[in-house]
Amino acid sequence: MDLGIKDKVAIVTGSARGLGAATARRLAEEGVKVVVTDILHEQAEATVAALRADGLQAHCIVADITKGAEVQRLVAETIAHFGGVHILVNNAGFPRDKYLVKMSEEDWDLVMEVMLKGAFLATKAVMPKFIEQGWGRVINISSRAHFGNPTQANYSAAKAGLIGMAKALAIEEGRYGITVNCVAPGFMETEMVQALPTYETIKERAVQMQPIKRVGMPTDIANAVAFLASERASFITGEVLHVTGGRYG
Question: Could you give the C-alpha distances from 27 to 21, 96, 230, 240, in angstroms and in order?
Fold first, then answer.
């Protein structure tokens, strides 16, 4: 199926590894010119090198998406390098899991700043260009955690916030040919998750609670993002696509 996004330009935040790297690769395979951006310089460069080795178009820009000036530089450099910007995937994020009584202000602030403020700054930075060209795609990577998880008050709140923001912007920007949607992953087998000391226990519990009895893979998310970024999804906006193996609660 031709997704109709060949030669579009995408920024994927937090794409040095994991879901972001898989998403960058999937978009690049569709002919999209991809900007890999992260604070992890060496890993981001390695991801770009791997994409280029396969004949795909990719460029690395190191940026801290919690800083407005750096986000503006990220977008300006993207446009200078590839000639435009059409797709934004707000993927950057990480957990700082603790029970609320043990959660510090720093635990709360860091998660909110990267996931929610970062998405706000990046979306605001690309929006004038999207409006000017009358075409744009914003895909926020939320999580099944938006329903709520113990020890994840910060993470769940941020992921729910991404959904609220997407729904508001879908209404606000639809008149300009811009769609704004979310992908909500369930349990995914990423490097970050595999590094957890309780990984095997978490994995077993997650699979037991899913109708589809396998772990999710980064490519499952990447495929969902590619669809929502495509012309095939041009009448879909303000939606949350759960990629969870059938688990919702």
Answer: 10, 29, 10, 19
Measured CA distances, 13 to 35, 80, 123, 130 (Å): 8, 18, 11, 17
Edge-to-edge strand ranges of the sheet holding 136-141? 58-62, 33-38, 9-13, 87-90, 136-141, 178-185, 240-243
Q: Which H or E element spans position 64?
A: none
Distance in angstroms (rounded) separating the CA atoms of residues 236 and 208: 31
Q: What is the DSSP letter of 6?
A: T
Catalytically annotated residue among 99, 155, 176, 199: 155
Structure tokens at 40: 């992890």
Query: In the 8-state DSSP scheme, what is residue 114?
Result: I
Give the CA distances from residue 225 to residues 62, 67, 96, 206, in Å, rounded to whole numbers and listed in that order.
Answer: 22, 25, 25, 22
| pTM of the predicted structure, to 2 decimals | 0.95
Which tens digit of pLDDT belongs to each residue from 10-59?
Answer: 999 999 999 999 999 999 999 999 999 999 999 999 999 999 999 999 99
The answer to whether residue 248 is catalytic is: no
Distance CA(247)–CA(73), nearest Å, equals 39
